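pinned: reference chain
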Amino acid sequence: MKRLVVAFFAYLTYWLLYNKIMEMNTYRLIAFLLIAGVFVSCKKTHVQPKQSTPDLSIHTGHGHIRQDFGMCAICGGYDIVFDNDTSAMYRSHQSLDNFGITSNSKFPVEATISWKLDTAINSPDFITITSVKTDQ
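pinned: its structure tokens
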């Protein structure tokens, strides 16, 4: 709709200037059309986008924990892939020593993992592990 209005104003302005109708009032008409175009194209209301609330619930799933030996700025920690959702890989930078998983453990570790989204890192694939029960 806005494009149609702007195109109409542009055509009308061109037609008036080309045919030299209303020599004295042409500039007033152009100013009026420009101001009207600004008001038509301005957004009248400001709608706040909905802020998604982070999922703070604790989830449980069976999966595999692997070490991430990457050397990039966000690499390191552990990669977790759950058996029921193999399309997504989750990451955790926390130490798993409290759960009996150390750097000397044999990886990948099969375990039942309870986790929640990491609210410190604003990314849906970083999680905080709350408990681990290994299958070994």
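why pinned: The domain at 59-134 is CATH 2.40.50 (OB fold (Dihydrolipoamide Acetyltransferase, E2P)). The two ends are 65 Å apart (CA to CA).
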